[in-house]
Known about the structure:
This protein has helices at 34-42, 95-107, 117-124, 130-141, 145-155, 158-182, 190-211, 216-222, 236-244, 287-302, 355-369, 383-401, 405-423, 429-436, and strands at residues 12-15, 24-30, 52-59, 64-75, 86-92, 111-112, 224-229, 262-268, 271-277, 305-311, 324-328, 338-339, 342-346.
Amino acid sequence: MAALGYQAEDTIFALSTGIERAAIAVLRVSGAGSRDILLQVCGKVPDARKAVLCKIWNNASAQDDLLDEALVLWFPGPRSYTGEDGFELHLHAGPAIIRAVSEALVNAGARPAEPGEFTRRAFVNGRMDLVEAEGIADLVAAETDGQRKLALAQADGALSHLYSGWSERLKKILAFQEALIDFPDEDLPPEVEDGINQEIQKLQSEMQQHIADGEHGERIRQGVVFAIIGPPNAGKSSLLNWLTGRDTAIVSSKAGTTRDALEVACILAGIKVTFVDTAGLRETDDEIEAEGVRRALFHVKQADCVLQMFPANEPPDDVFPGAVLIGNKADIGEIPKNIQDKPVLAISLKTGIGLPELYAFLKRKVEELTAASTSGAPLLTRARHKAGVQEAAQCLQAAWQQDWPELRGEELRLAMRALGRLTGHVGVEDLLDTIFGQFCIGK
């Protein structure tokens, strides 16, 4: 905790709105001393959760130095975002006002909040679990509709309910397992142990299905990456410019113009998509161009989808596994319908032939790469979640393979701990600084 300067007894404050020029600025305060601080700067405490217009003073009791007139909202704990007493000041957003009121709060005993400290307090006080807190961070950072919907579902507890349900089922399984261990002489029917193993295998199967979502949730959260590859002068840079709607890449008839990878992001099907224009793939003695080729091949390995382009009359000898084949310059030459049993999209970036079909295809590809689970279960959004569920599933597999009931029970307990670390109910202290350090100040 020391890394964030976190002290639960402190009263903290932060600007919750942006620093850009605006009409209103919201200063948020939380902590045990909130009521006394509010009395010092406003002279009164409004009714809970009702907006009241108040004068803001440097010292309200002496009515010394009027700072602003603002809407004030009082949120007594535990029915507040953090679970603590807190209040908001909806100020005029002039920098001088924000600075003066902040100084008044410091003089009254509050301190500036660290990044994520409000949400961290909400977690510590049981207002949300760790998975929901990560959803809040993703919601604040959301740039696309896909990211917004995914983050909102997570913040609303979609993943938490799934993991909590698994934990409850594990508790019941472990209870039966403990009965077999504690009462070995009771001649419990063999159906009890068979039922335990069936439930373990069923639960493990559900976890494996959750893990095998094809990283769709992580793609929604982080974005989909398309790498555009092909020989020099295939039209890769022209395709990038057309897809992103702006002249980002230099287009030239001279081969080898693109030497380095050029990344441009846009929104497609409600998802953030990054298109990477790479150097033309060919043998070369030019040291710089050769490095560009090496980087191009690196991006191929990292991409979610590869767009392999070639010019008319020059079909590729080698097709990258899983690549989408795009034949350009259909206006001046023949483009095959298939290469190595893979369909080819024929286009002309010069005349527009096939471009609507290509756009529709790429949109469907993005939807395919980010599709929701067929089971209706919420998608995984972070590598941490995947690792935790994977650990729990491995423990369950080890459990039903055990012949000794005591060893089976220990594996079940390890599975419960793995799920508990996901939601923050056990052993996550070392994770908190990392997770909440990613938040903005004021959240």
